[in-house]
Write a structure and sequence with these properties.
- The chain is an alpha+beta fold and 662 residues long.
- It folds into three domains: 2-122 and 283-321, no CATH class; 328-508, no CATH class; 516-660, no CATH class.
- Helix content is 51%, strand content 11%.
- The protein contains 31 helices and 14 strands.
- The strands form five sheets. The protein has a five-stranded mixed β-sheet.
- A hairpin with a 5-residue loop joins strand 2 and strand 3.
- Helix 1 (2-28) crosses helix 4, helix 7 packs parallel to helix 13 (261-282) and helix 12 (238-245) runs antiparallel to helix 13.
- The termini are far apart.
- Residues 186-197 and 650-662 have low confidence and may be disordered.
């Protein structure tokens, strides 16, 4: 163990200088990260941290051991190596595996600095702490761990009961209102969320005789119902509703009884943790893509990976971006590049449309795009910053950092290793202008007539420049990065994909959808239509890709039963998992629980005919209500009114699986 600590300290000392330089470069590029503390850990410690979601202390529970074992096996069998883990906190804490190569460590550090910027500046992360508050996640999770461990160690509390209660709560950890700030929940629900129920008035409307009424609805039953609340609208924060109104089923008494105080506290702690981790799930594509973009720019384009490290880094990045399936790193990075290119194209088009004789109608015929590309290429001096070229730079040039230039000339900065230290933000913007890069050749030419017309529609000073060269001299090379930072502040994955996954992006990136086919009993390409690709991705990221469940009634049928509704968007639930989850919900409610959903039923004969003819069968959508009463699950026909209510028009994006299949 002593030798391990020596190795870790030696590695930490080796990484101190790269970490400092990476922070300087990130800030020079316009990022504003949280401070980051870097820790060097060994293989086992890394797997433990990954199991603990990036924190050193979590509440005692078997799930952490399961996650640790899964991660260890993934690494051992080559299914995924862990390079780092970083948490959203101020300061952030990033953990580097000591066995990584120096190239890998540098890649991780640049990646982490971009994550720290995203954590600090994306408003979805700010919603957890609240206005003018900074995250203190490590301390919060440690307090939660101590509290839950205390209950487990309490001789008056059954440890197994605590673990079962946590199991039940964790089945619902994503059933929160992730679009609502946690701070807004602290005061509880508003009066408008509940509809007042006058039991006497409702009984009067039934027109029952006093004799029948007294026999069927006795005073004890009426009094019990007065305390029950009927929701006026579905409530998406299921965990909060269960915390406030749930009970527990007492086997000895055979009925629901008041929960123990520790149960309410544990449920609230787990709910707060769900809110803390929600922004990371809401922005997975954006966040990983953002980090991959800036890591690539710093490591490859700015030479943060030395010449002897570049091949190792290239292999590192190819493994990350080349992972199969829906890869958030690759998709996110390509979307951010599209945001950058689109903003830079708008900037250039805006200048060119102001050239005398150029209009949106004759744009493609008048503009010589080869000439434009040459004009947009960065000043060669900016690409050749070295210790032997420093005399070529003027400290008064806005593209030059005067202090950095002076220090480089004095030998305090190694301009060969860190050429960016001599340049200002403006200089780096020109040095990395995206439309001048070979990888994006042709992006400017692809501007459509509709985009040109829209740009010209409100352009009144349309003859500002006498020539194309004069117009391009006024181009703002920072337009793309400015737009990226603007988008980074306010979007989540759903809004990000909805706005920027355009037809142009899908076609140029060769994206497509694939689906399971009942006709062929396997998966096949379903559609290459850009609208289908967008709709399917939006469904994938709505509610973390999980079914949207809300509380529809806390007094269903006036029997004190809980009614949950699956906001059906064309994707059916796995009924076996739904039934298992209802059993867990029963433990948090204490009385029978119901789940309204819609399933698609297929006739056996129709399935066989469809398979023979190679087409998809026509199924029938049927409403069903699952009910669990503590003994077993019953299936009931769903009321037509309730079936209409659970249709999730606001998240279905006008699509169903059948629409994706050719």
């Amino acid at each position: 163990m002593k030798d391990d600590r020596i190795v870790a300290r030696r590695e930490a000392a080796r990484l101190e200088e790269p970490a400092e330089r990476a922070r300087e470069l990130a800030e020079r590029l316009g990022l504003r990260p949280y401070p980051v503390n870097y820790w060097v850990v060994d293989y086992d410690e890394m797997n433990e941290l990954i199991a603990y979601d990036g924190f050193q202390t979590r509440y005692p529970h078997w799930r952490w051991g399961m996650k640790y074992d899964r991660q260890r096996k993934q690494d051992a069998f080559g299914m995924g190596k862990a390079f780092e883990i970083v948490n959203n906190d101020n300061p952030c804490h990033a953990f580097l595996q000591e066995s990584n190569s120096l190239a890998d460590q540098k890649a991780v550090i640049t990646h982490v600095e971009a994550h720290a910027d995203f954590f600090r500046n994306n408003e979805w992360f700010g919603r957890f702490a609240g206005d003018d508050e900074e995250p203190d996640a490590a301390a919060m999770l440690e307090r939660h761990a101590e509290t839950i461990a205390g209950y487990m160690d309490d001789p008056e509390t059954d440890r197994g009961e605590v673990e079962r209660f946590i199991d039940a709560a964790l089945c619902l950890e994503d059933t929160i209102d992730q679009h609502r700030a946690l701070a807004a929940e602290r005061g509880g629900e508003t009066a408008e969320e509940f509809a007042d129920v006058d039991i006497d008035e409702r009984l009067d409307r039934l027109g029952l005789s006093s004799e029948v009424r007294d026999q069927v609805f006795d005073d004890e039953w009426v009094e019990a119902q007065e305390g029950r609340e009927h929701l006026a609208a579905p409530r998406p924060d299921v965990l909060a509703y269960l915390r406030e109104h749930g009970e527990r089923y007492d086997d000895e008494e055979g009925k629901a009884t008041e929960r123990e105080p520790w149960m309410d506290e544990v449920l609230e702690l787990l709910r707060r943790e769900a809110y803390y981790f929600a922004p990371q799930k809401l922005t997975k594509v954006m966040n990983e893509g953002w980090a991959a973009y800036w890591e690539s720019l710093m490591m490859a384009e700015e030479g943060f990976a030395g010449t002897d490290e570049f091949l190792t880094y290239a292999d590192h990045q190819s493994r990350v971006l080349g992972s199969p399936g829906l890869n958030p790193y690759k998709l996110g990075k390509e979307l951010w590049e599209y945001v950058e290119n689109a903003a830079n194209r708008r900037e250039v088009v805006d200048r060119l449309l102001r050239v005398r004789g150029v209009s949106w109608r004759n744009f493609h015929d008048t503009v010589d795009f080869d000439t434009v590309r040459e004009a947009l290429a960065p000043d060669p001096a900016l690409e050749e910053v070295r210790s032997d070229t420093l005399d070529r730079f003027d400290p008064d040039d806005p593209r030059v950092d005067a202090d950095g230039l002076e220090r480089a000339r004095a030998g305090e900065i190694d301009a060969d290793r860190y050429p960016w230290a001599v340049l200002s933000y403006e200089g780096l913007c020109e040095r990395h202008f995206s439309l001048a890069k070979p990888a994006h050749r042709g992006f400017l030419e692809r501007v459509g007539r509709s985009e040109l017309e829209q740009a010209a529609r409100y352009m009144f000073d349309d003859e500002v420049y006498a020539s194309v060269e004069e117009a391009l001299a006024d181009v703002d090379y920072g337009a793309g990065w400015a737009r990226m930072r603007e988008v980074r502040e306010s979007h989540n994955d759903v809004t990000f994909i909805d706005e920027f996954l355009t037809r142009e992006f899908v076609v140029e990136g060769n994206y497509f959808t694939y689906e399971y086919s009942r006709a062929t009993d396997d998966y096949r390409v379903a559609s290459t239509d850009p609208d289908d690709v967008k709709r399917k991705l939006l469904l994938r990221f709505t509610n973390f890709g999980k079914p949207s469940i809300a509380v529809y009634d806390g007094n269903f049928d006036n029997r004190g039963e809980l009614l949950l509704g699956h906001r059906y968007n064309g994707v059916a639930l796995d009924l076996a998992k739904a039934e298992s989850t209802l059993e867990r919900v029963f433990e948090l409610w204490g009385r029978p629980v119901n789940l309204a959903t819609i399933v698609t039923e297929y006739d056996d004969h129709e399935l066989e005919v469809a398979r023979r003819r190679g087409r998809e069968p026509d199924g029938e959508e049927v409403g069903v209500r699952l009910r669990y009463d503590g003994d077993g699950v019953e299936h009931h026909e769903l009321d037509a009114e309730l079936e209409a209510r659970i249709g999730a028009a606001e998240v279905d994006y006008d699509t169903k699986p059948d629409d994706w299949l050719a």
